[in-house]
Amino acid sequence: MLFLLFWKKSCVFNPQGRAVFITGCDSGFGHELAKRLDHMGFIVFAACLFPDGEGAQSLVRKCSSQLKVIKVDVTQDEDVEQAKKIIENNLPEKGLWGVVNNAGISDWSETEWNTIQQYHKMADVNLFGSIRTTLPFIPLIRASEGRMVFVSSILAFVYVPNLSVYSVTKRAVEAFTDCLRVELATFGVKVCIIEPGNFGSVTKVLREKAAEEIWNQFNDEHKKMFNQEYLHIITDYVNTQLRAGNKNVNLVIDAMVDALVSPTPHTRYLVDNRMNKRFFFIFPYLPTCVADSFFACSGIYRKRKSMLFSKQVQ
């Protein structure tokens, strides 16, 4: 064990001559990772939805000339094909070392309020977007015996009311990644999953909503069932939770970097503060009745039941 410990510390990764392709670099984790990897000496291909936007132009200003911004909408096959051509034509001597599937969107809503179109939209970015930006690059990563990194979420294995659409997509990403990891291990490729907790206050991936915004989207049936008083309570609760999220984005970036450069990277990186990590580690193993009780006993759930169930009975 001591030998392995010292061996790991002695293996200093050299990023020179290696490229990394990152999706979702307009803001959030992707933006910060692009800057970190550029500073380390990687050739960074930063995929941005808006290459002329402030996020992309900030990377151009603050990073070295080695970083290249590429216009990529992960829902469009043509964009991904064009990105591959650009990367292949600009590969350094050691090839494409890593692909970081970071692009994603989120939203919150009670399951009943969602439409099938909302499920399609989020799945096309979070799930099929990750698949779309993985399949064409497998040969390049296999050639370098590099890394595939996927950004998932604690919500892939911890269910939370109001976030069913997001959870569905992230749980599916984990299933795809698990299969891919076993298959690519044959070729010396390592596949890692990053599972951040609540970093919404710094990434802005989940925006705050106003009660009126939700009410105006309701059909007549929903307006009869869910009153505006309840909407104000639930939006205030969710918005408060978003503001209380972890603000240390470097925790996630450090995990991403370790997944890319460590000689023995983790399969999964659960990233949150210590207390939350302990809870989230235990939660999936709890009996369902015990896990459900965390929500049933919460103040917001009791208010929901008193306001909505009593109204239905009447």
Automatic annotation (TrEMBL):
SUPFAM superfamilies: NAD(P)-binding Rossmann-fold domains (SSF51735)
Membrane is among the record's keywords: yes
Keywords, ordered alphabetically: Membrane, Oxidoreductase, Transmembrane, Transmembrane helix
Any Pfam family: adh_short
Transmembrane portions of the chain: 279-301
Keyword Cell cycle: no
Stated family: Belongs to the short-chain dehydrogenases/reductases (SDR) family.
Protein's name according to its UniProt entry: D-beta-hydroxybutyrate dehydrogenase
Organism name: Huso huso
